[in-house]
Amino acid sequence: MKPRHLDEGFSLIEVVIVIMLMGIVIIAVLTAVITSVATSAVTRSGARVETVIVNAADRVNRAPKSCDYSAYAQAAVQTEGWAASAATVTQEYYQPAIDPTSPGTWTAGPTSSPACPAGALTDLLVQRVSVTVRSPDGRVRRSIQVVKSDV
Asked: Taking the CB of residue 151, how many other CB atoms lie within 10 A of it?
């Protein structure tokens, strides 16, 4: 008669190998989950910044002619619940060249009214407003330019 060895179980080496393999698989899965969560957070932040930047550009575009459009961009940022400092605005006006065959230049006016020459609105004024929005966590930054013109 042959002895039956039904209750042998697993050896210590087999158990250690299974635990190591399970550990490798679990580490790979956890790494993928952590990467996915981080990517999702950046994507969500980017979508919010895109929404704010489009809102800011729309507000600047629809604003009445002015020498300073900072308040419009800051209002767009604040509607998202962010600090006004999350929006940076650069404003310039177009200074045509004396010679019509030469290109003109974009010039910043005085600090109090950067989008106007000599701090005053003029006829046929062309203005360029650049808005940069930064997410509160600082990971996403987008910029857009709006050109306003009477011409």
From this structure: 7
